[in-house]
Design goal:
single chain; 241 residues; 7 helices; 0% strand
Length: 241
């Protein structure tokens, strides 16, 4: 059963990765090009040579972006299937399709939105190379806090559900999750390496494109998994009509 659910997750992740790639190409690549142009103009003005990357931009935009998105989608889809197998029937009484949709929404918030609100995505020209290790550590620390807070919220709901109705128990668990991540966001150090002259509209559009790409990714994972998992749980083949 878990093996078949994992196949559903990988299928959902592959579809999500491809569609997220298309969205990123349309919504995100123009801002990346403007950010790179800004960086090249800044380097030229300071007398620094413009270094060409080992991989050309057309290859990055086509093959590179597609491969990275599909691999990421496969990874997230596989993890999604394993988490679904662990929580289905143990948290609430929703059916498999509704559980998949709720889980996809929760994953978008926990895995992406919470860390994003504290450390939003920046175009390639933003950030000093010498601080990339520190920035990466801060981001993944916030991600770990978000995941642990979500696990704590699920366990809190299970405990509260023994004494309270499902609605109040869920609400209190969500409040607990929100309180933990808000406090963590206030305590964690901020990162502000945006150049003073960097166009604000380019930064805004890039971040909104990043947000939209992740929203597409998790929405497709949830929808495809919601369409295939019930068949697996009912003992039916995934592909047969």
């Amino acid at each position: 059963m878990v093996r078949n659910l994992l196949i559903c997750g990988l299928l959902a992740g592959a579809c999500a990765g491809l569609l997220a790639t298309g969205f990123a190409e349309v919504a995100g690549e123009p801002t990346v090009e403007r950010a790179i142009s800004f960086e090249e103009a800044r380097d030229a003005a300071s007398g620094q040579p413009v270094m060409a990357g080992p991989v050309s931009r057309p290859v990055q935009r086509s093959v590179g972006l597609s491969v990275a998105a599909v691999v990421y989608g496969l990874g997230m889809g596989g993890l999604f299937a394993l988490v679904f197998a662990a929580v289905y029937g143990r948290v609430g009484e929703a059916g498999p399709a509704r559980t998949a949709l709720w889980l996809a929404g929760a994953a978008f918030v926990v895995v992406f939105l919470v860390p994003f609100l504290k450390y939003p995505a920046n175009p390639p020209s933003i950030g000093r190379p010498e601080t990339i290790g520190e920035r990466t550590l801060l981001y993944f620390t916030m991600l770990a806090i978000s995941v642990l807070a979500a696990i704590a919220a699920v366990r809190t709901r299970a405990l509260l559900a023994r004494r309270l109705a499902a609605g109040p128990a869920t609400l209190l668990a969500l409040v607990a999750f929100g309180a933990i991540v808000v406090i963590a966001g206030l305590v964690m150090p901020g990162v502000d390496e945006v150049p003073r002259r960097f166009p604000a509209t380019t930064l805004w559009h890039f971040r909104m494109a990043s947000l939209g790409t992740q929203a597409v990714l998790w929405a497709i994972i949830g929808l495809v998994f919601a369409a295939t998992a019930p068949r697996v749980l009912a003992g039916k083949p995934i592909w047969q009509r």
